Amino acid sequence: GENVEQHPSTLSVQEGDSAVIKCTYSDSASNYFPWYKQELGKGPQLIIDIRSNVGEKKDQRIAVTLNKTAKHFSLHITETQPEDSAVYFCAASKRGGATNKLIFGTGTLLAVQP
Amino acid sequence: SAVISQKPSRDICQRGTSLTIQCQVDSQVTMMFWYRQQPGQSLTLIATANQGSEATYESGFVIDKFPISRPNLTFSTLTVSNMSPEDSSIYLCSVRWRDGTEAFFGQGTRLTVV
Predict the structure, then answer these.
(1) Three-state SS across B47-85?
(2) Does A104 contact B108 at a Cβ distance shorter than 8 Å?
(3) Which of A43, A94, A99 sits opposite B105 (nearest CB)?
(4) DSSP for residue A1
(5) Whose CA, among A34, A71, A101, A109, lies 20 to 30 Å from A44?
(6) Residue B73 near chain A (CB below 8 Å)
C-alpha cells in the first residue's frame, strides 16, 4: 500500500523567511496530493492541493511542487507570519479510486518566530 | 466545501464503557471516513463509512471495537467500545465527493479514557 514520508518533523523559521516541507510517496499510481494545516485543538484544514497532471501550483504565499518521476512533492511558504505556526500534513491518494483513501505523512510542526 | 459538525467535541470516559461520536454534514457527500489521531501523531484511517452497508475497516481496526453506522448521505456515527486508556485520541470525521478530490474534516472529538 501507499506510504508517505514527511520531513522535517519540526521546523523553526524567523518571521519573513521561507519554509519548505518535503514529502515522498511510494505508490506511483497516486495522483492527488493535498496539504493540510492543523492548529491546536482543531481539525485539519486543506490549504492547497496538486494533481499529477501539473508540476506546480501557487496560492498567494503558499505553493506546492510535484516531481512525479522522483515521487516527491513539497510545500513552500514564503514571507512566513506567526499565524502560519501549526502542524502541516501532506497526503496522497488515487483520485477516482475505489475508496479514495488519503494516506497522511507524519506531520511537520512549523514554528514562526516573531 | 462542506461544513462538518462533530459531537461531542471532547469527553472523559471510564474504562470499559463506550462512547458514540456523531458526524453531521451540511450536504450530501458520497464518502465519509473516520480517522484516529493519537497525541502528537499523524492521522490514521479507521474505516470508510458506507451508506446502508457495513463499513470498510483498515488493517488493525475491527467492527466489534469501532462499530460505525451511516444511515444516510449526511450522517454517520463511530462508537468506541469497551474503552481502555490506549483509546485516548482525537477522532475525526472526514468527507469527500465521488471524484476523490478535496477532503474536509470535522473539528474532532478529543477522547480521554481514565
Answers:
(1) EEECCCCCCEECCCCCCCCCCEEEEECCEEEEEECCCCH
(2) no
(3) A43
(4) -
(5) A71
(6) no
